[in-house]
Amino acid sequence: MKEYKVLRNLETNRWQEYKDLKLESLVEEPLAFLPGLEAYQPWTDEQWKKDLESHQVLPYKLIFVEADKKIIAIADMYYYPDTLLKHNIFLMSLYVQKKWRGKGIGRELIEERIKIAKEDPKIKNIICEIFSSQTASLELHKKVGFEVVGNVKDFILVDGQYYDKTILEKSI
Ligand SMILES: CC(C)(COP(=O)(O)OP(=O)(O)OC[C@H]1O[C@@H](n2cnc3c(N)ncnc32)[C@H](O)[C@@H]1OP(=O)(O)O)[C@@H](O)C(=O)NCCC(=O)NCCS
What residue ranges of the chain have pLDDT lower than 50? Predict the structure, then answer.
């Protein structure tokens, strides 16, 4: 039996777990996520609660992985409803706690979001942007069928070093 399960929703009363994991991801992987820790540090508990509550359904949806009765991985996705872009869905953050990596959890979180995207017949493209520092994530997305469609050179500057951004797409 698998030691973890993917959750499409998380009860609002578990907002502290969501907050802890999100902040952990920003501390542990500062090169993976924008806009970075500074943007979230001032949030009140009420804001965290609201953020979790309002992101259970598209257009901005979070999904989670639970193991040992705790949230150990998180991912989100977004699309722009009622616009000329409404057939594109964007995979955003993806974070698996260090001790749970290499067990297929990252892959499952991508596949679950692809499944969610496919449930909406409007969606044609799944798009994802990854910084060149995140080689594991790049490899993982290619493995599940994403194709590299572009590259933005020197997109972010962290501690004096520039990193490119790679744009990947999967058509459905
Ligand atoms: C990227 C991340 C989500 C992968 O999660 P994971 O649960 O360890 O990934 P999986 O076990 O599902 O790996 C599936 C595939 O991804 C690739 N992969 C995973 N880790 C890798 C690594 N360190 N180096 C190269 N490829 C890797 C492999 O192709 C692997 O397939 P395999 O097991 O058949 O070799 C995780 O490393 C993480 O949270 N990293 C920090 C945050 C981050 O970079 N997020 C992405 C921002 S876009």
Answer: none
